[in-house]
Amino acid sequence: MVKIFGGMMHSHLKVFYEESFPVLKVTHKLPILKRGKGSKVWDIGNNEYIDFDMSNGNALLGYGNPELVNVITEGNIRQKEVIEKLKQRFSLKSVKIFSTEKQAKIYAVNLAKQLTGRRKILRFGQNDLIKKCDLGEEIIAEWNNLDCLEKIIKQNYKEISAVLFEPIATHMGIVIPEKEFIKELMEISKKYGIITIADEIKTGGKHFKGASEYLGIKPDIILYGRSLAGSIPIGIVGINHKEEDYVKVSPISIKALGITLDELNEESLYEMMRLNDILIKAYKDLVGDKASVVGWGISGTIYFRDEPPRKYSEFLEIDVKKWNKYFKGMLNEGIIPMSNYDSQWTISKAHTEEDIMNHLEKMKKITTTIIKNFF
Questions:
Q1: Which of 90, 248, 278, 337 lies deepest, with the highest CB count within 10 Å?
Q2: Is residue 287 part of a domain?
Q3: Which CATH number characterizes residue 222's domain?
């Protein structure tokens, strides 16, 4: 085990080293993982897997990336340079950087409340009930449900300070917004003086300029997280008006942010997307009309449903039992395809075409045995 600062390494540095792993995953499905290197992980029984979950899509450089390790352990802090690089990459006018994603989200929500003098937040989930949470009072709307969105805002706009949304919804696989929905979300928010907060904690590193730029929208605030820092904890609030930049985070996080932005450049992301396209196309060929496959950027997912869901009520119609058969079959073949039926696979910079072919070979095997018999 590598030692740092005169003792055992800090827990948040473990993601970088071959003989350790960032989080021990203990669930009814996933094995207990003890270490990772590149695109591979090993469990406590020393069984090897190719990991396509990649620490919930955060380890985009892979485990133990040598450039990241060198910068973290020996590199100099280039805080001003890193901040300017971040702002230029995502076309931001100012940034506030915190130690965690939660701190960044709370700051953004409180800023919206302060600017508008209103107390409620509109976000997207499974119903339209108002409830309490750590962000204050929330109103819950359904993604891609335009009638629901318009009705809620028109009835509650005097109380809504901000609408908090993932530009590409990832809490139900991958659900890309319909053009009219995302257009109306932006326009109606502006009309009623509601701050738009795009949560790109999961999507910010999966496309060179993020999901907002991909969709052609300009939210007032954009949130980013540890996927932009190689899985090192960080929370970023990107603001689209000029303010003083604010940094309250470990120098380690700033170092990790800088090298991750360098490593996830247009060339490397293009290659990662190319590999993802191979995986998506082959998946579609293998499952035919028995399931549906959706991809975006460097991620993809499979739904055991005739058509991909457009909103949460449709997502609830997927066949979880079939997904569990798929997952167990892949796991037994040495592939971790994703962490759960509502998540997605992610291609990291460490994945190779050989990893993709291996994944597809195992997928072909289970579609001709386990899945075929289950349909």
A1: 337
A2: no
A3: 3.40.640.10
Identify each DSSP E strand in 125-159 by its residue range.
130-133, 136-141
In this model, does residue 163 exceed pLDDT 90?
Answer: yes
CA distances from 169 to 95, 131, 201 (A): 23, 21, 11
Residue bearing tokens 């069984």? 47
Mean pLDDT of 86-99: 97
112 is a domain residue? yes
On average, the pLDDT of the chain sits at 88
What's CA 115's distance to the chain center, in Å?
A: 28
Indicate the pTM of the whole model.
Answer: 0.89
CA distance 266 to 21: 28
Q: What is the mean pLDDT of residues 349-372?
A: 90
How far, in Å, CA of 211 to CA of 156, rounded? 27
User: Which of 251, 362, 272 has the alpha carbon at shortest distance from 61?
Assistant: 272
**What's the domain count of the chain?**
1
Residue 212 falls inside a structural domain: yes
Is the CB of residue 128 less than 8 Å from the CB of residue 141? Answer: yes
- Assess if residue 344 is contained within a domain: no
Q: Which domain holds residue 89?
A: 73-263
Give 35's contacts (C-beta < 8 A, 6+ positions apart): 18, 19, 20, 21, 41, 42, 63
Q: Has residue 126 got a pLDDT over 60? A: no
Does residue 28 register a pLDDT over 70?
A: no
